[in-house]
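Interim report, section 4.2 (structural modelling).
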Amino acid sequence: MEKHEAANVAGPICADDSLPSRRAFLATSVAAVAAAWIAADWPGVVAAGEYAEQAQQTARSGRQVTLAVFSDAQAAELDAVVSQIIPTDDTPGAHEAGVVYFIDRSVATFLSSSRAIYMHGFDELQAKTAQMFPGSNKFSALNSTQQIQILTAMETTPFFKMLRDHTVIGMFASPQHGGNYRKAGWKLIGFENTLNFTPPFGYYDAAP
Amino acid sequence: MRRFKPNTEVDFVVIGSGAAGAVMAKELALAGFSVVILEQGGWGAYGHEQDYIKDELLHMYSQDPVNRLMSDPNRQRNTFRRNDEEKAVPGTHSYGCVVGGGTVTYGASSWRHLPYEFTEATHEGTIAGSGLADWPITYEELEPYYTKAEWQIGISGQRVDSPFFSPMSKDYPVPPLPQKSSGALLRIAAAKLGLTVVPNVAAIVTRPYQGRAACVNCGMCGGYGCQVKAKSSSAVTLLPAAVATGRCEIRVLSYVREISLAGNGKVSGAVYFDAQNKEIFQKAKAVVLCANGTETPRLLLLSKSKSFPDGLANSSGLVGKYLMSGNACTASGLFDRPLEEYKGAVTGAAILDFVPSDPKRGFYGGGRMTARGQESPIQYGLSGPHGAPNWGSGYKTALKEQANRKLTITNFITQLPVETNRVDLDPEVKDAWGLPAMRITTTSHANDFKSMEFFRQKSLEILKAAGAATVWADPVADSTGGAHSRGTCRMGNDPKNSVVNKFHRAHDVPNLFIVDGSSFVTGGRNHPTMTISALAFRAADALVRAACSGDLSARI
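Predicted structure of the assembly:
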């Protein structure tokens, strides 16, 4: 029952985006953002919006999108981590929601104070990977069980705690901020983004 | 909007534009007096409320002083400690900081105090370690002003004939908010346990009222400015009326640093920093201080002079003391079906039976139990589902399974006035303007912890009776400050043990009036706004009569 309903929720996304390559996901998700940017004066977040606008134009022109903060290699590692934080199952996870893209442009702008923690975090991740699985230096190249082991060992680090929160925010913030692609996060939790609701709202106030 | 030059002596300077300041400014301007409101916050979306953005991320990260709606603990710096032996550490105390003050972003609960709440010392006797005292006014004296406030501001609710519901001379102007699933569940429990459930009383209009639209149940309410002006904030009710008189100026980004004392023992105006950090003196015949229960005492303590070496109007030594910053506790339960609590106003319904203190419980204390389960998406994701890991597939599965199924009971509880709980000036830390930062020292009375534990257990019992599959509650915790701060310039008849008289005039200064949560003698049940508004209407009435007689100190 649960699965059936969830599959319906996931339908529209998985239909055309099943297992996108990282490059493809970046291109499609930038095309989706910032179409209806309405923010007024919040400088940091507005800067993020402008960046999204530029990235969107780049994507539409067919050129390669350049990430603002992370290298391609770092983005791939980051994508692997956020995909373990909110994994893909029968519904989209952080990967499909474009969380890496959200984090990149947030760290480029209003979360710039987190930049150093991220850069240091990549080193920590690589060191932990090499320590736990000698011979490996790429987290993203490991299998899921190995990745979970590494992240469990890093759970209490400031890097992981922050990344966990940023992943959640990217999953559930309005899609105009670059994550929550096609409302993947909102569909997961049954959140309807409407500014006008009519009672009854839930099961119990509708019940006689 | 009429503008005044700072060197023009206006009749009144009103410091703060929230629940109290807006009432004072509007009543004084309407009576024919010139008023300058000094508001430290920005305009927000005053006059273009449709621009209030319902975006959770922008809301979380908005740091711009012009657009943020709450004070910024990095600028309006404050420090915190539990007692005098501790060294205070940087605090997180924050309050509404925009034209309209806290009424722009509050959850809008608008409960009157019960008549009993003005005479609790008489009812409960002396409680060791507390300054429990009767108010110098009765409920009957304040009742007409509650009614006036409810009709001028626009309050929705349903009058109930119950000993737990304040007697009213007139109904609420608009009917109550729709019952949410949380309210329906409380009713199921109440029917089993014999309790009284009523719709929340809220400053949110449910019908078009005085040119404003009815609530559309958007759900982004507490913490947000209202796009449709259904939330009856000062900024869409009283302040436009004050400005429309042509006698009231709202001056934003004006951070007051001192109320100035003239040689004759009267105040002569206020000195503030403008947006460019330039110091400006606004001359006035009288000053009305409405800066909230923490900033009001701080400003008095900052206003030192030869006559008042310990701070203006502080001959009693009580300015800043008896701080009641607000106690609450919560319990939650998961239900089988969706509640969809993210829709509609913050609070749907309340249980009133435990508002009065009851000696049978073995301690002093009472509270109002309110049904809340509202969580916006980021908030839900960050706090995480109950009893689940906070990342990975277990996290994701639980997020999905528990979504919209939670009911939280939030209890608004008494907090005894204790003299050592206080606001004063930090000896080391400065705010962003170079002034001594506010220091908060507070530990609740032992009775308050017993109250919180009582409500914690009672909430779990009610959730189970309502049919919750799983219930839980965090251990009770003492308060650390917040927007409900009260008691720091308590009113009374004796200048030796109070700061203002029963009409809010400072005992020590004939043309200084202090009107806000700081005037409270006891804290009520931590729902202060309606009583702040009613006190302000009553104070304004007296002040207008005195001012019309030409002698501010003569009549009140």
